Amino acid sequence: MTSHPDYWNRFYEDETRPGWDMDRATPLVAEVLDLALPLGLRPGSELVVPGCGYGHDAVELESRGFSVTGLDFAPLAIQGAMHRYGDRVRWSQADWFNTHLGPWDGVFDHTCFVAMDPARRSAYVEVCAEHLRPGGLWLVAAFHDVQGRPAPPHEIPMLEMRRLAEARFEVLHLAEAQQSHPRRAGREYLLVARRH
Ligand SMILES: C[S@@+](CC[C@H](N)C(=O)[O-])C[C@H]1O[C@@H](n2cnc3c(N)ncnc32)[C@H](O)[C@@H]1O
């Protein structure tokens, strides 16, 4: 049950460093900011990283001048983030669907949307919109190719992503990622969308 924290916590228990963890921020933080800053995202804005895992992306965003909340519902993810990075960002052990923190100016979404059960995608888009201030940005890295793996992450075609996002957002950018980690090169794309 990928919608339950126990499912994810087990990976952190079993492997200390789960397969998806790259021990550093994704290079897509820089690529996304290059897109979002000209669209009005200002340093100092409040960002949230749902499904932050060990918190590398959250801390990278903080080091680039944002006020960041790293959120994950797996207790061992948040413990690992605090162990690595202390209180450089605000950490929250919470379910993205239920948190009462926020609203935020931006959601940086790297390997959280794609971790969802596809049946929850519409609800997930709704929740992202609800957690954003009007005009806020949803910044997403998603996979269009997971090399046939059945478990999360799940792939989602760009056209389907556009359809889902347009329920609550104006799509400003949707294109192949250029700066993926080498292990993911050619399989990721970026969405930048503004809340209506
Ligand atoms: C594939 S991992 C990616 C972690 C991190 N973003 C990274 O790239 O290292 C997905 C993360 O999302 C978290 N997650 C999944 N569903 C969640 C939810 N509803 N609320 C909060 N966190 C969630 C899991 O606990 C897990 O840490």
Could you describe the 3D structure shown?
The protein has 196 residues and is of the alpha/beta class. The chain has a single domain, classed as Rossmann fold, CATH 3.40.50.150. It has six helices and seven strands. The chain has helices at residues 5-15, 28-36, 56-63, 75-85, 121-131, 158-165, and strands spanning 46-50, 67-72, 90-93, 104-110, 132-143, 169-176, 188-195. It has a seven-stranded mixed β-sheet, with helices on both faces. The radius of gyration is 15 Å and the shape is globular. S-adenosylmethionine (SAM) is lined by residues 8, 20-21, 50-53, 71-74, 77, 95-97, 110-112, 115.
- Share in β-strands: 25-35%
Got a strand count? 7
Largest sheet: 7 strands, mixed
Class, according to the CATH hierarchy?
Alpha Beta
| The CATH homologous superfamily | Vaccinia Virus protein VP39
Contiguous uncertain segments of 5+ residues: none
C-alpha-based Rg, rounded = 15 Å
**Head-to-tail CA distance between termini:** 32 Å
Chain oligomer state: single chain
At CATH's second level, what is the architecture? Answer: 3-Layer(aba) Sandwich
Mean pLDDT: 95
Tell me roughly what share of residues is in helical segments.
25-40%
Choose one word for the global shape: globular
Bound molecules: S-adenosylmethionine
How do the strands line up in the largest sheet? 3-2-1-4-5-7-6
